[in-house]
Write a structure and sequence with these properties.
single chain; 347 residues; alpha+beta; Aminopeptidase; Elongation Factor Tu (Ef-tu), domain 3; 8-stranded mixed beta sheet; 8 helices; 17 strands; 28% helix; globular; binds cobalt (II) ion; binds zinc ion
């Protein structure tokens, strides 16, 4: 017989598995969006999809002392786009988002049409690093004519999720794990009695095209017109051998972002997050990220400007097919997200 705790873990793992294993590189989010839409139907009071394919889910309506809050988790993933197929059926590609050639080698990919392939490399001079233009996708085709993919087709990495006990590894933890956090927070909110859900109108946005320049959240923020908002995303760590010096580490709690390369979090939002984490006893760590951007920028810069921040989940090997996160950090992020949006906010 399974204990309640094991059952809860199994449910969470299967939710994560579904989300990380559904292909959806930037601009190809239709399938992952439909998957998430099914999961949140019944939790939200209103669901709509905008022109860029963002899934916008409203919970609650704004009361006198409430705020319209936008919470954004991007649902696109990095991928590869075919630009040429040669006579022997080898497909050359360009990156969709930040792709490192080293993490491509020996990798497998899955196209939106279901075609699969492996990534091969040209013979390289000794001691040279491969560039993306030295790599190709081998779909098993024997000629251009029987190649199952054509110019413009897009694929993502193909790799199953791995449950490592306290930690989990998968492709596209960036940022499907944030979609998991948002969905779990929505469930927590929905499970509260109406009187305890707070005075806010909360828009959970599952945004598109973040990996190619924070595009989906830009139109979503304009459409939602929030008074306050935050992104949920993964962040880099400094806790692996000979890593770049960074304060973030797996297992130290939810990361509260101070800045990344795309924006500086509003100090009032940072304090709001710290205070909520403290009052709920949620472990947290401060995040200063030297590279990368998040949907927080789009929220902050929309219209005449909005106080914005970001809750991040520490993640190793970001943008590789084996990104890794910590389950306790994941739970901390869920609790913090649900806690923040379910109370009156005084910045
Ligand atoms: Co990313
Ligand atoms: Zn991301």
């Amino acid at each position: 017989m399974k204990t309640e705790k094991t059952q809860k873990n199994d449910d969470l793992m299967s939710l994560i598995q579904t989300l990380v294993e559904t292909p959806g590189p930037s601009g190809q989010e239709h399938r992952i969006r439909e998957t998430i839409k099914e999961m949140v139907t019944g939790l939200a009071d209103e669901i709509r999809t905008d022109a860029l394919g963002n899934l916008l889910c409203r919970m609650g309506s704004k009361q006198a002392n409430g705020k319209r809050i936008m919470v954004s988790a991007h649902i696109d993933e990095i991928g590869l786009m075919v630009i040429h197929v040669d006579d022997n059926g080898f497909a050359r590609f360009i990156p969709v988002g930040g792709i490192n050639p080293l993490t491509c080698l020996g990798g497998r990919v899955i196209f939106m049409n279901g075609a699969r392939g492996v990534i091969g490399a040209e013979r390289l001079e000794p001691n040279t690093m491969p560039k993306l233009e030295n790599l190709f996708i081998d779909t098993g085709a024997t000629s251009a004519a029987d190649c199952p993919v054509k110019i413009g087709d897009v694929c993502g990495f193909d790799r199953p999720m791995l449950d490592l006990g306290k930690r989990i590894s998968a492709k596209s933890m960036d940022d499907r794990i944030a979609a998991v956090i948002a969905i779990m927070a929505m469930r927590e909110l929905a499970a509260l009695p109406a009187a305890k859900r707070g005075p806010n109108e909360v828009w959970f946005v599952f945004s598109t095209q973040e990996e190619v320049g924070i595009r989906g959240a830009t139109t979503a923020a304009y459409g939602v017109d929030p008074e306050l908002g935050f992104a949920i995303d993964v962040t880099l760590t400094g806790d692996t051998p000979r890593a770049y010096k960074r304060p973030m580490a797996l297992g130290k709690g939810a990361c509260i972002k101070v800045r990344d390369s795309s924006f500086i979090a509003d100090t009032r939002v940072v304090d709001w997050m710290i205070n909520e984490a403290k009052s709920l006893g949620i472990p947290y760590q401060m995040e200063v990220l030297d590279a990368g951007g998040t949907d927080g920028r789009a929220i902050q810069m929309t219209r005449a400007g909005v106080p914005a921040g970001c809750i991040s989940l520490a993640c190793r090997y970001v943008h590789s097919p084996s990104e890794m996160v910590d389950k306790d950090d994941l739970n901390a992020c869920i609790k913090l997200t649900a806690g923040l949006v379910s109370k009156e906010v005084k910045l």
